[in-house]
Amino acid sequence: MRLKRIEILSKVVPGGHLGYASRLIRVRFQPGIADKLYWMMQSTIIELYELAQTVDACVWLANDWIALPIAARLAKEKGGSYVYDTHEFAVEEYAEKLHWRMWKRPFVCAVERQYIGGAAVVSSVSAGISERLDAMYQLPRPSLVIRNTPFYQPFRFRPTGERIRVLYHGIIVIGRGLEQTIESVASWRPEFELTIRGPENPGYSDMLRQRIRHGGLENRVGLVPPVLMTALVEEATAFDIGFFALPGHSRHNAFALPNKFFEYIMAGLALCVSDLPEMARLVEEYQLGVLIPTLDPAAIASAINSFDRERIDACKRNALAAAEELCWERESARMVNAYQQLVPEIALG
Question: Which numeric CATH code is attached to 164-323?
Fold first, then answer.
């Protein structure tokens, strides 16, 4: 789903039809034309809208800004309320890229601004995103924080063995610190090894393999295929440290609180993640691991090397305890309660 979302977003680009590109520029000065452009963006938008027309609903849930106009239109035409659950800080999602800031951000902002105020419930995955949405759009009621936590699964503590296994799982794309991480492995203590698990990304995955070969790291770094989402957490339990070196080049990343963060916790892993506000707060609150101050390979290596087996095992135990709180059974209660207010005659959940 994440890759499909990126594919849809890639269509909102300059070039192609000159008239469409010129109107994208005009959105900066005429936000009112953004809605018309939205419905021209890609055939998938119309297909999704037409498919949704075949069902009836009391609540139409827009998952991220791309679906927001569809949910609003369906609520208007078919009745019911629409709600907006954003997993990204949409107007900053690719703020490190000049073409995004110049061409896309005004369009995304105009679409979000037109519809977010009419949503009966607005929610996001982190407090940072919710606070920014409330301030930017002067929402009539505070947005909720509903984090992307997995269902609770009880796992036993597994002591760290002779080899210390570090795991990154997720999509394999630029902007996840994977190049710098691979470069850093040469400076890791010899007992550490890295596994990168995710879907093949033609070209980019080959480039990562080339870096591994050039660094002579074939015995310490492995790229492995993804597993089913239903097996993801259980597969992670075979590792010792859950890793994510996300660059801190935007407010979008600063507010990130990704699925993998909670999946590592549920699997009972120690954490080694970027020192970004939302992740750092939970790492420190629950004593889950080590923060990476910068995306420099030397800083990554220093963070990894700061672990010894005793510290890893302590963090693992803390993660298993935290998992009982940071799970969907608890997190979903806020969403269910909010939606139940919209349809009180229906027992949700």
Answer: 3.40.50.2000
Structure-derived torsion over alpha carbons of residues 302, 304, 310, 314, reported in degrees to the nearest 10:
120
| Cα gap 168→178, rounded to integer Å | 9
Q: Where in the chain is the domain with CATH 3.40.50.2000?
A: 164-323
Structural contact between residues 12 and 27, judged by C-beta atoms closer than 8 angstroms? no
Q: What are 10-23's pLDDT values in tens digits?
A: 444 444 454 566 67
- Cβ atoms < 10 Å from Cβ of 54: 6
Q: Which residues contact 238 (CB under 8 A, 6 or more apart)?
A: 165
Residue closest to 167 by CA, chosen among 227, 87, 250, 125: 227
pTM, full prediction: 0.88
